[in-house]
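Because discrete structure vocabularies remain unfamiliar, it helps to consider an illustrative case, giving the amino acid sequence and backbone structure tokens:
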Amino acid sequence: MLAEAARAGDHAAFAGLVRMHQQRAYLVARSIVTIHEDAEDALQEGFVRAFQALDRFDTSQAFGAWLNRIVANAALDLARRRKVRTAEELSDALHTPFRDPGEAAELRERLADALAELPERARSVIVMHDVEGFTHVEIGEMLGIPGGTARSDLHHARQKLRGLLNDLRD
């Protein structure tokens, strides 16, 4: 197992873990900070923290979940330090039901603006669940909260988002 080898000091094994988990970890960071460059910074910081904490990793647990929690914490720390309040366009992975490109672009812009108005944790939960497809339990693990709290946060964040976008038609 790569995680056990990395924990034992095998740098090549840790590099393999980085390659294996970097895409999903990037999505975790990006869902929290929303800006590509900040997500890359948080991802790098998360990998450094994970490497430094390998001796505390429990090899009976999933390495990916452990790593994603570290990356999420690094992203939250970065967001707090930089007080990121601007939003970048959502990933092309978010598809809209509109067919008119002008309407789709306007919707993405309105959605990005509304997401930027949400508190960091609310924005993170919505993007992690609705865009990236993480479960409530996975979100809870990454943010260090119970899965039920992640579910409740998602409900309240969606309500707030609906209020911010209430003038849009279905």
